[in-house]
Amino acid sequence: MKITKEEVEHIAYLARLKFNAQEEELFTTQLNSILDYMEQLGKVDTTNVEPTFHAVAGKNVFREDSVAPSISQDLSLSNAPDRDRGFFRVPKIIE
Prior knowledge:
Layout: H1 5-14, H2 21-42, H3 73-77, E1 83-84, E2 87-88
Antiparallel strand pairs: 1-2
């Protein structure tokens, strides 16, 4: 599977990013290198390998859920570039 320059342009459009032709070429090459490597990994025989969720042993990092004081709504909106009736106002992103 190869990524085309047009697909990189489309992904950039969806992410609201603008790349010049040189960057598009660079990212196309880099993404294809990643896909080539993933393809190599897909060829590795893992029939006798136990499935794992983590590469290293993990421990529970969750803490007890507790109610604690937080910043006020006015303070949280103090640096907002735009707000409306106590909410952040952002540009519409869904067409």
